[in-house]
Amino acid sequence: MLIGRVALVTGAASGIGRAVARAFAAEGAAVHAVDVAADRLAAVIGELESEGLTATRWAADVSDPAQVERVVAHVLDAGGRIDCLANIAGVISSEPIEEVSLAEWDRILGINLRGTFLCARAVVPAMKGQGSGSIINVSSRAGAMGFAGMTAYCASKFGVEGLSRALAQELAPHGIAVNTITPGTPVHTAMSETTYRAEQRKIWQDPAVIAPAFVHLALQGPNGLHDRYVNAWELTRELQTEARP
Ligand SMILES: NC(=O)c1ccc[n+]([C@@H]2O[C@H](COP(=O)([O-])OP(=O)(O)OC[C@H]3O[C@@H](n4cnc5c(N)ncnc54)[C@H](O)[C@@H]3O)[C@@H](O)[C@H]2O)c1
User: Fold this and answer.
1) Ligand 1 site residues, Cβ closer than 6 angstroms
2) Which of 81, 94, 125, 220 has a CA that sits 20 to 30 A from residue 192's CA?
3) What are 197-238's pLDDT values in tens digits?
4) Beta carbons within 8 Å of 3's beta carbon, 6+ residues apart
């Protein structure tokens, strides 16, 4: 359970972020849901409320330092602490390198990598002050291997891996766990609508199926799961096996 914990979830208006915000709220966390898509975010919060769950919404662009700092300042004003940051906001594009414009390269890296850095940088002082925290950075198989036509996306996710490995070393002495996570199974989201092949579409599932892995990571400190590239599907299955009588 996440009762009494404050969680900041980016990319909460869709897909994996929406599923994680919902799972965190259902586990009792005070959820602060961030997304650049203000209208979709409002609709998601409305859905949660119709289920008796609550979350506070923040329309913000994670690649903009001023907006990120503003959201974190408000969250700290409201609750005095941040226990978990789930960096889930992300974008993808696919084209041969000679067609990747500088603007597109900067957009993908700006949201996926710079956004992850900015959100982590903004919450770390509070987490250090508390002596605890968990940072969950969404990576991808594209953070571990190359995919043709996805130079910017792979570069951004390999960057998230590097950022996270360094942060894990830096923050462990302060009681803060840092992990990366990849879905590990086909999930049906707005992003995968644009990227999945026909075979994956046959077996894709609602991203809620991998949300338990995020809940588990939210509870970790550096002496637990820490500095790992976590497969969400495998971790969720392990947790379900452990929970069986
Ligand atoms: N879908 C997959 O199969 C898959 C696989 C591996 C990794 N991922 C990663 O999971 C994460 C979530 O992807 P998804 O599939 O749920 O996609 P999605 O498109 O359904 O959701 C992404 C969310 O991020 C938000 N967002 C985009 N730019 C933003 C910005 N500048 N500031 C704030 N929010 C912003 C979008 O508005 C959207 O709500 C991404 O980081 C993605 O790279 C997805």
Assistant:
1) 10-11, 13-17, 35-37, 61-63, 88-92, 111, 115, 138, 140, 182-183, 187, 189-192
2) 220
3) 999 999 999 999 999 999 999 999 999 999 999 999 999 999
4) 27, 28, 29
The dihedrals phi and psi of 128, each to the nearest 5 degrees, come to -60, -40
**157 CA: nearest ligand 1 atom:** 43
* Distance from C-alpha of 117 to C-alpha of 69, rounded to nearest angstrom: 12
Kindly report the backbone phi and psi dihedral angles of residue 95, in degrees, each rounded to the nearest multiple of 5, phi listed first: -165, 155
**Is residue 1 a part of any domain in this protein?**
no
Distance CA 221, CA 239 (A): 17
| Residue 83 in domain | yes
Quick: pLDDT tens for 126-173: 999 999 999 999 999 999 999 999 999 999 999 999 999 999 999 999
Global pTM exceeds 0.90: yes
Query: From the alpha carbon of 37, which atom of ligand 1 is closest?
Result: 37
- Confirm whether 153 is a catalytic residue: yes
Q: Count how many domains the chain has.
A: 1
Please report, for the domain that includes residue 162, its CATH number.
3.40.50.720
The string of pLDDT tens digits covering residues 15-74 is 999 999 999 999 999 999 999 999 999 999 999 999 999 999 999 999 999 999 999 999
Catalytic residue among 24, 58, 117, 153: 153
Give the DSSP per-residue string, 193-211.
Answer: HHH--HHHHHH-B-GGGGH
Residue 11 falls in which region: left (phi positive, over 0), alpha (psi -120 to 50) or beta: left
Measured in Å, residue 90 CA sits from the centre of ligand 1 at 4
